[in-house]
Amino acid sequence: MFPELNNLLSTTPDRTEQGKLTLLCEAKTDGSFLVHHFLSFYLKANCKVCFVALVQSFSHYNIVAQKLGVSLTAARERGQLVFLEGLKSSVDIFFRAQEEPQALQFLREESTGNLQSLYQFVRDSLKPVDSGETPWKFPVLLVDNLSVLLSLGLGAVAVLDFMQYCRARVCCELKGNVVALVHDDQDAKDEENDILLNGLSHQSHLVLRAEGLATGFCKDVHGQLRILWRKPQPTSRRDRSLTYQYKIQDKNVSFFAKGMSPAVL
Amino acid sequence: MAAAATCGAGVLSSGCVASTAGRSSTSSFQRRTKASGADGGGPRLLSIAGTRPSVRNGQLLVSTGLPALDQLLGGGLAVGTVLLIEEDKYNIYSPLLFKYFLAEGIVNGHTLLVASAKEKPADILQELPAPLLDDNGKKELEDIHNSKTPEPDVSMKIAWRYQLLPKMQVGPVSSSRFGHYYDVSKRIPQELLGSSKWHGFFLPEHITSDLKGESCSLSGDYMKLLQFIQNIIYTEGFDGSNPQKKQKNILRIGIQNFGSPLWGDDICCTENSDNSHRLTKFLYVLRGLLRTSLSACIITMPTHLIQNKAITSRVRNLSDTVVGLESFIGSEKETNPLYKDYHGLIHIRKIPRLNNLTCDESDVKDLAFKLKRKLFTIEADSSALATIWALGDLLR
Questions:
Q1: Fewer CB atoms < 10 Å away: N or C end of chain A?
Q2: B100 within 8 A of B64, measured Cβ to Cβ
Q3: Structural domains in chain A?
Q4: Residue A58 and residue B10: Cβ atoms within 8 Å?
Q5: pLDDT tens per residue across span B274-284
Q6: Partner residue opposite B310 with nearest CB, options A95, A96, A189
Q7: A110 has pLDDT over 70
Q8: By the CB < 8 Å criterion, does A253 face chain B?
Q9: What angle is formed at CA B262 by the lines to CA B320 and CA A154, rounded to 5 degrees?
Q10: Is the ipTM of this complex over 0.90?
Q11: B349 touches chain A (CB under 8 A)
């Protein structure tokens, strides 16, 4: 986790809000550093994490997490982390006959399926232990990323349904958190993606939007992060929003106010 | 930390040794003690010909066949990733990059897998450019470094902003080990071809008129190609799961003109294609196959023909490295005096961040290429840069 981002979000691993949906959005830049942040953050906060990793392999996340001070293999072995490696299971589903239903079962289906099998996987992995005594604080679902599901033949409505089920289960019933990354291609007119993004933005409590700079590539400022705190229920208080620029380093991401990059000053 | 880490079934780092692994184990590749760079300091460093570890994170890299492009991509193409070449409008220059990639594989002794719907793989291999021998290679390097004016028969070179950056360097590794130069005016010698190992997938040979049984929600053609690739990877042991075969070589996969109507896909013909997800699903599963094997893939795709721009952006998001070629033929830039030395622009749209938060993006974003009589060079578009600074952005 990045300490500076924790300060901006006013959270620490010991004191986090529960029952929240956080939407991560990347537009014209790579927003995966946010995923790495939340993964290591919730593991350090002693939560049970179900990570649906559709984009990269386990070793990729593991190596980056080690730089941030968390070992994913150790977390997996002690049962704190349930890791679904999308790339590997897609190969298994396609080339090896599977008996029991898999999490990514929709890959085998011809018509636009639904994510019921994936939801069942999430539900089973975050099931509270019957004995009642669990060392983990609350469950967290982390998805990287939802736009890939659209590329795999699902419609935006199916993905929104899946998120609705997960939110109902994890946020409302189990008082946990859900974090999901969605890609935003502003130029490309991807309507399905826009539906997904707008739908999730309205449901989420916190939106973190990593954008590339409008002026193009810069070596010292890699992008801009917009933080938006939302209240899904309409209240009189307005939503609070902050914008920072950031630079990604090897083990850390530094944030600064717009135009205040150390390289410029 | 590095010594104790295990590589999961993922993108490989230097020092990974392919070991037999059951399907239940999490990692096919165990990382042994990490050695320092290319001098092989570790006790059991696996060294595959034609690869080198990345200086940034120890990622195993292969050359794309164009040392200039290797530098732009941060040292080379990472093993286990997909390089997407967005074809130029008349498909004149992208086959060159395709052939460079394959020729590099032959020179390094890698196994090739060539897939095409248009040409027979054997014909494609016959047309590969000839590698420049070491003595000539060194001579060409000297020519490139010393020449200020373009010579009539100098190859494509990448020159950076002259004042700020050093002249193109091949890197600490000598050109005979990683990244070679090729002469497009000559064909690859037959003895090199004969000694190489390759597999070809020519789509018309694999078409059956009826799709039987489960269709697996991919179009028949894409499914067959995927199965062909998976079969080669498994039977030749590139993923370390075959107990009989222990492979210590790289598989270079090249797929040409992917997504064009010849592959049975209509995304280039109509905007509202019903099966638009078949291509993206193929790319996803291909990526899964590559991540768990010692292979690297180049795909050339006519993205300028894809009617629905959403598909183009999805394809780009699913590929690890994306390079776009834009040739000046037929456009107004052909007569633009600023571009008279060049044949087109090259856009590095995406570079992967593998095992890392950061990536090696180059500072120069305006790059142009030219195909001289023998070689293909990439240059920082310095004339355009100067004009942009002076007059504003009139070129876009």
A1: C
A2: yes
A3: 3-256 (3.40.50.300)
A4: yes
A5: 777 889 999 99
A6: A189
A7: no
A8: yes
A9: 50
A10: yes
A11: no
